[in-house]
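User: two proteins, same treatment. go.

Assistant:
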Amino acid sequence: MTNFPTKILLYTDGSEDAALAAPVVVSLAEKSGAELHIVHVWHTAAPFAPPSWFRDDAQRRLDEEIQHIQNAGGTVTETHLRKGHTAEEVVNLSDELEADLIVVGVVMGVGAAERKILEGLSDDIVHHAQCPVMVMRTREQTEAVR
């Protein structure tokens, strides 16, 4: 990576907390002149719902994140909708794009079991990515885990 990233990959799960990363990522992309890519990963979690429902929901969440970025004054270079294991898909996409930075928003306003899953996701991305990973959280979120 050079001094500033030229390609930033933002992972979003479509949550409000993950959207907190939008203004920071927009500012970083603008200041560095970096391309901004957004990825959302979906999978079929329930056997009774058709896969198209999950894909449509994932596209809606991705569209909402694009709106957050645009509302913060940013421009999205490309969006990526992937199906599969989230950390694996994010890391693979960052390799394909030759991203210089991955940004992940942390969702802390959930129950203990969900928090463990999400922390595991961030850890997986951090440990397997070939580039730096920025994990975004608010001051309140940071204090909540202390």
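Protein 2:
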Amino acid sequence: MPKECDYCGFKDPLPFTCKFCGRTYCYNHRLPESHDCAGLASYKERVRESGKLYQYEPELIAKKQRGHYFNTFSRAISIIKSNYSLTFLVVAVISFLLQNIIGESVYFSYFALLPADILYQPLKFAINLLTHIFVHANAIHLLFNMMFLFFFGPELERRIGGKRFLAVFFASGIVAAIGYSIWTLLVLKNPFASAVGASGALFGIFACLAVLAPHIQVYIYFIPMKITHALIFFALFDLLFIGSGDAIARSAHLSGVIAGLVIGDHIKKTGNYIGY
């Protein structure tokens, strides 16, 4: 079964148990030197004192773990459950299916973000700061957002762990929603322009990843570039067209980027992440 890494918090579907300290770690922190293993120092001391090497049987651990994944379907479910990025992807797809069954207008009335609600229904507005993330306007909107999440979400989650990934995702999504609401109310003066989609949260993920791993190379329209250059490109593009009146919530994108940059900088200062 998936377990959280005792070092970074990532929920690995195939966890490793350290034979020296007995704690559970993900693939990236499975080696004793990767998790500052206290048990290794103790083991070396015992070897020096006794002059003997102690035998371990890690093969037994591996066999026991592999037994949980005999069934292909259960393994797939375990991988999804162990990875918040894939969990969010599945939730968004299920939400879209429900949206088409119930009806878009009814579904949007409950779960879409409506800036006017901050004045008339503040509790609903607070709830929709989260729910709008998993609602999408159409199949193309869902497809592009989920592709973005699939490629960049697990990469950030692997580097910072599951708990901090949740913080980046939801904080960016909420900040994006607030930024959109402020822009719509004060600048566009259109409080009834609703917003849906995970774009703000995804731009936060993208920005956070760019801060922590600026060496990553991505492809924009088949052109290779560093992730930092891609982030600048997207941000400038949104700034350029923010007043165009199109259906894209560019203010949400930019707000999500700001949230991701701030959180990424904070994580980078702690040094507790995988940068390579």
